[in-house]
Amino acid sequence: MSDLHVERFYPHPPRKVWRALTRPASVARWLAPGDFEAREGHRFVLHTPPAPGFDGQVHCEVLIVDPPRRLVLRWDGGPIRSTVHFELRAESGIAAGTRRVE
């Protein structure tokens, strides 16, 4: 298994980015519709268009919720099993905001 790290900067404070990352309606818009809740142990399903070898369902579980800093999800869809870590860090300086690390 390999790791993939992605960093993004948002010109907003961590609490605002956290809300966008954890509100069910936001998750449905930026990721896929489902029954997401930012609650440790919550199991949910995201629904996406099916593809060859994939029924369009991604089975997920919330592993860690540490507002407004860290969210860890596990998902299993088709041949892909992943653990996704979202880490938010406040940044100051010329462009204050939040850095999201996945």
Radius of gyration based on Cα positions: 14 Å
How far apart lie the N and C ends?
16 Å
Major sheet size, sense and barrel closure: 6 strands, antiparallel
The rough form would be described as globular
Average pLDDT for all residues = 88
Stretches with pLDDT under 50, minimum 5 residues:
none
Question: Which structural class best describes the helix and strand composition?
Answer: alpha+beta
The residue fraction in helices comes out at: 10-25%
H/E element sequence: EHHEEEEE
Please work out how many helical segments DSSP would assign.
2
Lateral arrangement of strands in the main beta sheet: 1-6-5-4-3-2
What is the chains' assembly state? single chain
Strand proportion, as a percent range, falls in: 35-45%
The tally of strands reads 6
What would you note in describing this structure?
- The chain has helices spanning 14-22, 24-30, and strands at residues 7-10, 43-47, 57-66, 70-77, 80-91, 97-101.
- It contains two helices and six strands, in the order βααβββββ.
- With 102 residues, it is an alpha+beta fold.
- The chain has a six-stranded antiparallel β-sheet, covered by helices on one side.
- The mean pLDDT is 88.
- A hairpin with a 2-residue loop joins strand 4 (70-77) and strand 5 (80-91).
